């Protein structure tokens, strides 16, 4: 199996891409630490993994709160002694052009999507540095590199995550730690369903218009991104360092 015995922490894995990755990683032999803000959703992921015979535990934490993340990391280290892979996946959507966005909404998107990468990395890295081994996967988005309408706060955060990934890679390469970024296109998850509800009077018509900007002819599915995450988590990607990995079905315009 491709992740045999690896201890892998996935933030925001109670839903969508994180959940799909947790299921796939467990099928490949990993022990998955499922984290989410929402306890019920996280527990569901764990139950599904266990029902397939996989290994997983749930640890609730808010990735924006230092004490909460420190407790999460301490719990995992106390139980398993190490974290091989950290997947910084938790994130929230932000809809609106600059003039439409309230300062509080702006701050929350920045907080979850950037601070939520900084804090888990900050508390996990010393353990990886001590072992001189590790892989970190940061969730960016294709929006880091292409302009899409009314996504100001969200674009800003995902561009920041891509830049942060490259900066982190330089700092931690001497410790044999790889840091790469995933850049998905539009993936059909609860997050995109929420975006469709908030952005279109007719969400069905919105879905059809999102499909039209894909060379693939349809939106992606969480499994499509989970398979790319599996590659970054495994040793098969050992020559990838500070790299963006695109899984976007050929997004051509916004
Ligand atoms: P989702 O809403 O289905 O799942 C996100 C999960 O993160 C939820 O379970 C939520 O409870 C959790 N979460 C939110 N805030 C948290 C916090 N403070 N602490 C811990 N957990 C928290 O979304 P998804 O579509 O699976 O997105 C996952 C990641 O992929 C996000 O970073 C998103 O920006 C990114 N992404 C998604 C798409 C897409 O089209 N769906 C495209 C590119 C990138």
UniProtKB/TrEMBL annotation:
User: Per the UniProt entry, what is one GO biological process?
Assistant: bile acid metabolic process
UniProt keyword terms in alphabetical order: Oxidoreductase
Q: Which Pfam families does the record match to this protein? A: adh_short_C2
Superkingdom per UniProt: Bacteria
Q: Which residues form the signal peptide?
A: none
GO MF annotations, alphabetized: oxidoreductase activity
Report the family membership: Belongs to the short-chain dehydrogenases/reductases (SDR) family.
Q: What is this protein called?
A: Short-chain dehydrogenase/reductase SDR
Q: Which organism is it from?
A: Paenibacillus mucilaginosus 3016
């Amino acid at each position: 199996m491709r992740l045999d015995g690896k201890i892998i922490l996935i933030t925001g894995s109670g839903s969508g891409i994180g959940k799909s990755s947790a299921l796939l990683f467990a099928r490949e032999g990993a022990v998955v630490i499922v984290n989410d803000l929402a306890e019920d959703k996280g527990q569901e992921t764990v139950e599904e993994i266990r029902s397939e015979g996989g290994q997983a535990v749930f640890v609730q934490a808010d990735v924006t709160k230092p004490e909460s993340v420190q407790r999460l990391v301490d719990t995992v280290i106390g139980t398993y002694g190490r974290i091989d892979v950290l997947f910084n996946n938790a994130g929230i959507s932000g809809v609106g052009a600059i003039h439409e966005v309230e300062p509080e909404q702006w701050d929350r998107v920045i907080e979850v999507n950037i601070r939520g990468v900084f804090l888990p990395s900050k508390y996990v890295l010393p353990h990886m540095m001590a072992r001189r081994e590790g892989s970190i996967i940061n969730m960016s988005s294709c929006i880091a590199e292409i302009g899409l309408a009314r996504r100001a706060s969200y674009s800003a955060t995902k561009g920041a995550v891509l830049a942060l990934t490259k900066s982190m890679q330089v700092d931690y390469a001497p410790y044999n730690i790889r840091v790469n970024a995933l850049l998905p296109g539009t993936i059909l998850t609860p997050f995109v369903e929420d975006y469709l509800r908030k952005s279109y009077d007719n969400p069905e018509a919105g879905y059809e218009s999102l499909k039209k900007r894909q060379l693939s002819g349809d939106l992606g599915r969480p499994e499509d991104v989970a398979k790319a995450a599996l590659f970054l988590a495994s040793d098969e990607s050992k020559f990838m360092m500070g790299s963006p990995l695109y899984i976007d079905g050929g997004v051509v315009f916004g």
